[in-house]
Amino acid sequence: MDPNIYEQGLQSAEEDEEFERGEAQRRIWRVETVRRWRQRIATERASLALEYLRSVVEEVVLQRDRI
What we know:
By secondary structure, this protein is mainly alpha-helical. It contains 1 helix and no strands.
């Protein structure tokens, strides 16, 4: 076997492995980023819902006190 071809094959295999590791790291980063984004959105929604409920309760109390 030609040593140059063998070396090229090894280099190509190493580059493929490096590419796969990079892809795996990017996938993990994307998954983690989306997870954090979804958690942040869920927290914001819960906060808005709580704020709305507080305003409803406040309105009910005001209505009750007027009667």
